Automatic annotation (TrEMBL):
Coiled coil, from the record: none
Organism: Neolamprologus brichardi (Fairy cichlid)
UniProt xrefs under InterPro entries: DAPIN (IPR004020), DEATH-like_dom_sf (IPR011029)
Source species, domain of life: Eukaryota
Protein name (record): Pyrin domain-containing protein
Domain Pyrin intervals: 1-92
Organism placement in taxonomy: Eukaryota, Metazoa, Chordata, Craniata, Vertebrata
Length: 101
């Protein structure tokens, strides 16, 4: 998968998060117990980050693993609809719908 495609998928998923969900998403990126083997992103790099900036920080930190990390955090937020977008880019998010993958 090309970098621009990854970037676009990430941005699309983050755009579907409400402001409070985005805040919680960024909070999880700072929790080593959630990310397990992946590095955290320091709070100072995420504090004022908007959606595109958050995508850039994630790409810099996680490179090839960025989609795996994103799916892990989205599952914590109970946003399996957005996990499905990362698995199948042609899927449309459906509020309140859970996907099994």
């Amino acid at each position: 998968m090309s970098n621009s495609t990854r970037e676009e998928l990430l941005l699309r998923a983050l755009k579907d998060l409400g402001d409070n969900e985005l805040k919680e998403f960024k909070w999880y990126l700072q929790k080593s117990d959630v990310l397990e083997r992946f590095p955290i992103i320091p709070k100072s790099r995420l504090d004022k980050a908007d959606r595109p900036d958050t995508v850039d920080q994630m790409l810099q930190t996680y490179c090839e693993n960025v989609l795996e990390v994103t799916k892990k955090v989205l599952r914590k937020l109970d946003r399996n609809d957005l996990v499905q977008i990362l698995i199948d880019p042609n899927a449309e998010p459906e509020a309140g719908k859970s996907w099994n993958d």
